[in-house]
Amino acid sequence: MAEKQTATTSDCDCSGSNETLKSADGEISDSPKPPAQDLKSVLVTSVLSLEKLDVDLYRGTHHWVPHTQRLFGGQIVGQALVAAADTVGDSLHAHSLHCYFVRAGDPKVPVLYQVDHTRDGRSFAVRSVKAIQHGQPILTCQVSFHMVQPSPLQHQFIMPMVPPPEDLLTVEELVHLYLSKPDLTEKAKQGLNKILAAEVPLEIKPVHPPHIYRLTAAEPKKLFWVRAGGLIGEGNMKLHRCVAAYVSDFAFLDTAMLSYPNYRAKFIASLDHAMWFHNTFRSDEWMLYECESPWAGGSRGLVQGRLWRRDGVLAASCSQEGVLRVTPVTPEPSKL
Ligand SMILES: CCC(=O)SCCNC(=O)CCNC(=O)[C@H](O)C(C)(C)COP(=O)(O)OP(=O)(O)OC[C@H]1O[C@@H](n2cnc3c(N)ncnc32)[C@H](O)[C@@H]1OP(=O)(O)O
């Protein structure tokens, strides 16, 4: 990774963007550029719209389910955060969450979220959320909320210098480009068409798009621009953190696989996920996700990530360990 430097939030505008989002305390001010799409995101209308069944009891349904046919971890974390946030006052904002994925989520049934009020203090409140299916926990999650407080202590790393999202292709555009190549194997075509068919409610623009047949080992690092597909809006700023929780698990753990092109994942699943929210942000505006894996071993891998606002303000940090059971690849490549 590039040498880390620190800067105050007011120092950094490293993306080349002229947006005027930041202020000294990182609060969002007027954004001159509205999100590209004005249709409400499915994340608002369904995925992160939980049904309240009773006091501290919620039910969530699914949207996109990965090909593994186990629920997407980001969806479960995002929904758990929605449930927790609904039980605290508007002056409290999630600043961190710590989760364990203890069982695979079943896409055939909804998930129940049971919230326990662990503590309510003057500045902080803590909630413990259990996500339940078939009477058993699939996720346990602690969320801590904090009221906005000023501080003379302020620093952050500097956002990596990367091309702006306007200069990059979306995953779908890249897939169409790859599909137009004449020498494509049938297996590769199938893999690409699966990517197109997946209804992931996010827009992604990789900064360094992978070669279609990834043959060389790369550093376990990647960068991509990401935003919610569709409008989240300003009505409920808490929701942007829930969307970021959803986003933060997407394509995160496979960062640990980038150094091993000769192996493919036989079984890959996140075991735990932690997230810290540093500043306000709009998850329907482009954010840069900087992912790296400092370690892999013992059939597990660790990944760490930073979500940057495009004006260079550090929005959130993430950390995850996952199980990585691999098998050597057969000569014919099958996916990006
Ligand atoms: C990638 C981003 C994501 O969103 S992933 C989704 C979120 N995360 C998850 O769904 C993970 C949820 N957690 C879990 O499913 C469990 O905690 C897991 C990780 C499976 C626990 O692992 P473990 O204690 O090994 O479970 P288990 O004994 O029930 O076995 C599950 C399957 O794994 C196999 N397994 C077990 N040990 C080994 C081993 N040493 N070497 C190879 N395979 C092993 C078991 O045979 C079993 O396989 P199968 O399901 O019977 O095909």
Task: Lay out the secondary structure.
Blueprint: E1 6-7, H1 42-47, E2 51-54, E3 57-60, H2 73-85, E4 92-101, E5 111-120, E6 124-133, E7 136-147, E8 156-157, H3 171-179, H4 186-197, E9 202-206, E10 221-228, H5 237-248, E11 263-277, E12 287-297, E13 300-309, E14 314-328
Antiparallel strand pairs: 1-8, 2-3, 3-5, 4-7, 4-11, 5-6, 6-7, 9-10, 10-12, 11-14, 12-13, 13-14
Region (Disordered): 1-37
Organism: Echeneis naucrates
GO cellular component, one term: peroxisomal matrix
Description:
The protein has a single domain, classed as Acyl-CoA thioesterase, double hotdog domain (Porin, Beta Barrel). 15% of the residues lie in helices and 35% in strands. A 12-stranded antiparallel β-sheet has the order 2-3-5-6-7-4-11-14-13-12-10-9, with helices on one face. The chain has a two-stranded antiparallel sheet with strand order 1-8. The longest helix is centred in the N-terminal third of the chain and has 13 residues. The chain is globular, with a radius of gyration of 20 Å. The structure holds propionyl Coenzyme A.
Q: Structural class of the helix and strand makeup?
A: alpha+beta
* Topology-level CATH name: Porin
- Principal-axes geometry comes out as globular
Radius of gyration: 20 Å
Fraction of residues in β-strands: 35-45%
What is the helical fraction, as a range of percent? Answer: 10-25%
CATH superfamily: Acyl-CoA thioesterase, double hotdog domain
Query: Any idea what the CATH architecture is?
Result: Beta Barrel
EC number: 3.1.2.1, 3.1.2.11, 3.1.2.2, 3.1.2.27
GO cellular component, one term: peroxisomal matrix
GO molecular function, one term: fatty acyl-CoA hydrolase activity
Domain Acyl-CoA thioesterase 2 C-terminal: 219-323
